[in-house]
User: Which sequence fits this backbone?
């Protein structure tokens, strides 16, 4: 346990977020803020222990190329303990690299690894990374504290009103990491910033959700908060039973609501009803996004049919590529249009590399069309390969009106696209 490592001899702790492959524009994105490390920092400070955070710690480590003189990332010359976080199992190699790096720099200092990968695969994590100990699950004492946001440059805060989830979805590891369902009755005293991001796995399932939403409404009215978003989707089964919650969400200021459509095409009426509950609450269809799990049991053709329906309803899609909870392969490369094999990344038996790539492209183009209120997409126009005056004219026309000889790569989200349909054109433009 974490507490076993915090003794009287520990005066300083180095916290490390490995160099995960996060796009530069998302380095401080809400989805990737090392919130666990920030809570640990608050816990350690309460015990009068010095902390320092290193974000995007060393990667592609080669011990033969490194010495202590190269250590420039931290002013903490002699930490007594090093804590490294992990996220997805398929980013395990980045955790291993970070552990190796800091073991080389501080060979006598114990290194702990916690987080999602560590909790889902503790034995693998310890053996694969070479760390001294693995911390599984939450550190409950830290959960009660406000994270040390002074260690990061962000203008928002993250809040959990619940831990765990009432559902046990096959593709989700939440139940394994947080098996106990815990609910907060109030969060108003936790608000320290005007922008708030909820990290709940199932926010609406909180038995005190009405009280929490009313708190948020009051905070908005008093201008103590200005932006609210939920990282996860809203449970549509709860929305159906309690549609008034959607109105409270809207009044509180929740942005970009998401629901999930993990089931088959036969669930279309139910999903449409969930969307309408949000629309009736005041959300525009294009503000709404539908989670879709692909590379799983449902085939490409069925996912495409679901996608086309979503365009008919005017909503966006958040696509989620399925990977087993114990999968550490991370070789998928979107630039390899000639294809990859299951040796490089997980491909479900019901899917192919071609189908995965095509569905990803379809979703991207679909969302562009929804956001811009158009019914076709052209890469040539997006990349400004069409003369400006011509592009201006055609942007005002529908897919059925445009001249396909002028816009030969026009793609419409209105129809289901065959997996073998040609996607790329070699066109000479002036």
Assistant:
């Amino acid at each position: 346990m974490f507490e076993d490592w915090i003794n009287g001899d520990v005066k300083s702790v180095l916290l490390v977020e490995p160099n995960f492959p996060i796009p530069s524009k998302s380095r401080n994105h809400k989805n990737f803020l090392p919130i666990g490390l920030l809570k640990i920092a608050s816990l350690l400070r309460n015990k009068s222990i010095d902390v320092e955070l290193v974000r995007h710690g060393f990667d592609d480590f080669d011990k033969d190329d490194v010495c202590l003189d190269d250590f420039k990332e931290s002013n903490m010359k002699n930490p007594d303990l090093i804590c490294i976080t992990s996220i997805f199992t398929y980013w395990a190699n980045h955790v291993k690299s970070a552990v190796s790096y800091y073991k080389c720099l501080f060979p006598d200092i114990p290194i702990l690894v916690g987080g999602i990968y560590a909790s889902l695969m503790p034995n693998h994590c310890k053996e694969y990374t070479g760390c001294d100990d693995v911390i599984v699950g939450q550190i409950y004492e830290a959960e009660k504290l406000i994270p040390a946001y002074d260690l990061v440059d962000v203008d928002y805060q993250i809040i959990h009103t619940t831990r765990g989830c009432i559902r046990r979805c096959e593709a989700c590891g939440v139940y394994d990491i947080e098996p106990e369902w815990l609910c907060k009755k109030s969060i108003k005293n936790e608000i320290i910033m005007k922008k708030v991001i909820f990290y709940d796995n199932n926010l609406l399932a909180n038995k005190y959700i009405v009280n929490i939403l009313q708190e948020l409404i009051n905070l908005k009215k008093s201008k103590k908060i200005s932006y609210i978003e939920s990282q996860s989707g809203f449970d549509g089964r709860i929305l159906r039973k309690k549609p008034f919650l959607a109105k409270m969400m809207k009044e509180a200021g929740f942005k970009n609501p998401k629901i999930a459509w993990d089931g088959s095409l036969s669930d279309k009426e139910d999903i449409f009803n969930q969307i309408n509950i949000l629309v009736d609450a005041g959300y525009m269809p294009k503000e709404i996004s539908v989670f879709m799990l692909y590379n799983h049991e449902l085939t490409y053709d069925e996912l495409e049919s679901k996608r086309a329906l979503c365009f008919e309803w005017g909503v966006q899609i958040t696509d989620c590529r399925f990977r087993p909870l114990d999968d550490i392969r991370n070789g998928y490369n979107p630039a390899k249009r000639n294809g990859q094999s299951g040796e490089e990344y997980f491909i479900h038996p019901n899917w192919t590399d071609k189908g995965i790539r095509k569905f990803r492209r379809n979703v991207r183009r679909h969302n562009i069309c929804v956001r811009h209120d158009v019914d076709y997409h052209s890469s040539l126009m997006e990349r400004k390969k069409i003369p400006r005056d011509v592009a201006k004219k055609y942007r005002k026309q529908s897919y059925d009106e445009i001249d396909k000889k002028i816009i030969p790569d026009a793609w419409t989200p209105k129809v289901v696209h065959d997996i073998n349909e040609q996607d790329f054109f070699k066109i000479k433009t002036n």
The radius of gyration is 24 Å. Residues 426-430 have pLDDT under 50 and may be disordered.
